[in-house]
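Ligand: D-glutamic acid. Inputs:
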Amino acid sequence: MLGVFDSGFGGLTVLKPIHERLPRLSTIYLGDNARAPYGVRSQEEIFHFTLQGVRFLFEAGCPLVILACNTASSQALRKIQQEILPREFPDRRVLGVIRPAAEYLAENSRRVGILATPATVSSQAYVHELQKLCPDMLVSQLACPGLTDLIESGRQDTPECKQLIARFAQELLAKDQMMEQVLLACTHYPLVWLPFRKAIPGVIDVLSQGDLVARSLKAYLLRHPEIDGQLEKKSQKTFFTTQDQYISKLASMFYGSTIEFQKA
Ligand code: DGL
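Predicted complex:
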């Protein structure tokens, strides 16, 4: 089974396109809703919580886990790949969401904007990844504190949230008016794609990353038949949350159709 992890519901916006592109794949989703948002936490905390999530999914039988969370990918992925896997789980793999998005951006322009959580922005992960792919890439980043909280709690349509989005869009544009692409680099943000789209001039592409990650996963599995062969293909979908009480209705909004969670 493929494991998919996020701090909360955001990873469901990545899981949905994975199910669309790889419909036979059985998946286990874990949302650490009880401790979301991660984006305002320290690197140590994000690493520790992410590792707990990965261990849970490994124990549940996943040979491959996707960190469907930019914050966890930027603050914990490298350490898990370089220090934890070789020592404890040499046959398992963990992948993130930053590289696939960066590859798409670098293929399509040299001037991009990144909207993300404070932790993702301060890690500079996108800047490093993009400039590794394209040394002359111009990257403008903006941290969007408070936005994940509003979306995670289902308040994305409130005037408060709309005002915040308009302000973040203005602040990013003030850094660079000539960007060609803006990435919503938090897996919660696809739920507010439309207000961002409206606040950013039409000549600039506004992208969500879910399908970019799904496409890249499909290519990865073709290149790695030894991992693909270990993944169950029974279209079974299991959803876990660390929250005591969760709102399935809210989760279904992120996923796009009805889903039921179990307590992890
Ligand atoms: N959905 C997440 C991301 O992609 C995490 C947001 C958070 O927990 O702050 O960054």
